[in-house]
Design goal:
With about 280 residues, the chain is α+β, with helices and mostly antiparallel strands. The chain has two domains: about 30-40 and about 75-275, hypothetical protein PF0899 domain (hypothetical protein PF0899 fold); about 45-75, no CATH class. The chain contains four helices and 13 strands. The chain has helices at about 95-100, 105-125, 155-165, 175-185; strands at about 35-40, 45-50, 70-75, 85-90, 145, 170-175, 195, 205, 210-215, 220-225, 230-245, 250-265, 270-275. The strands form three sheets. A seven-stranded mixed sheet has the order 5-13-10-6-9-8-7. A four-stranded mixed sheet has the order 1-11-12-4. The radius of gyration is 26 Å and the shape is flat. About 20% of the residues are buried. It is found in: Virion. Pfam families: Phage_capsid. This is Phage major capsid protein.
């Protein structure tokens, strides 16, 4: 009788694939959309001209009025109290040596992805609690509009809000599920309203404005923004530090990843928050 693999499993060399399956995750969207980035480790003040006087029609040899006044304000970013995003993980040297994958490389990539994902979520939904970032959805002074996923007019109404504020929006942000609902909308000629931009891979446009899709955008909400009015203060991108001596008494190493950012709006009226009415 021939021996099969099930008859003598102890004689078989156990194989482990070198492919490590990573979790499914949402890609970073806020920084990729192209906000204005200011590199600073100190508090940043961005001056704003918020008002000015009105010129007058003046005749020949008449007195030119000198009551023209300018009003200034500022956007403050990166206060000393702004906290960083930090994470650390430890692993034994035995684990590093016996792992069939490059454990340190895998952990570094994973930790950076996790930190970047947390930052991106904060850029959108952060509430500013505990000296953290206040996200775009919770920034003061933004404009608002109702969101009706069954009607294309809801998006035209949002565009009308930006037009009235002299804003040229260049980005929609939609939840993935809401995007599919909108994707099914058609005009009277049964043509889909969301147009695929063939020159930019799978980029979609809604009334001429590019659409970014992410599950970090809450369901039932959307953003229409001039992304150039979003200011991001960057102290450090996610930085990696290998701690090979800190836990030497345990024969362990550690990887630490830190990042520090802040976000504000240069012109809050350049952002429209769409939300499905309650009830």
């Amino acid at each position: 009788m021939a021996l099969n693999t099930t008859d003598a499993p102890e004689l078989l060399h156990e194989q482990v694939s070198s492919l490590l399956i990573q979790p499914l995750e949402t890609a970073s969207i806020v920084l990729a959309a192209g906000p204005r980035i200011f590199d600073t480790a100190s508090p940043l003040r961005i001056p704003k001209l918020v008002g000015s006087g009105t010129p007058a029609w003046v005749g020949e040899s008449e007195l030119i009025p000198d009551n023209y006044t300018a009003e200034f304000d500022e956007v403050r970013l990166m206060p000393e109290s702004r906290k960083s995003v930090k994470i650390i993980t430890r692993y034994s040297n035995e684990m590093a040596r016996q792992s069939v994958v490059g454990l340190d490389a895998v952990l570094r990539a994973r930790l950076v992805n996790d930190v970047s994902s947390m930052l991106d979520d904060s850029f959108l939904n952060g509430d500013g609690a505990g000296d953290s970032v206040t996200g775009i959805f919770n920034q003061p002074g933004t404009q608002s509009a109702p969101l009706d996923l069954t009607s294309a007019d809801t998006f035209l109404d949002a565009l009308a809000v930006t037009t009235a504020a002299e804003v040229t929006p260049n980005r929609w942000f939609l939840n993935a599920g809401d995007f599919i609902t909108v994707r099914k909308l058609k005009d009277d000629n049964q043509r889909y309203l969301l147009e695929s931009d063939l020159t930019r891979d799978a980029t979609y446009r809604l009334f001429g404005v590019p659409v970014t899709v992410s599950n970090k955008v809450p369901a039932g909400k959307a953003l229409l923004a001039d992304i150039s009015q979003v200011a991001v203060a960057r102290d450090t991108n996610p930085q990696i530090k290998i701690l090979d001596q800190r836990y030497a008494e345990y024969d362990q190493q550690a990887i630490r990843v830190t990042a520090r950012f802040d976000l504000g709006l240069l012109h809050p009226e350049g952002v429209v928050v769409l939300e499905t009415p309650a009830g």
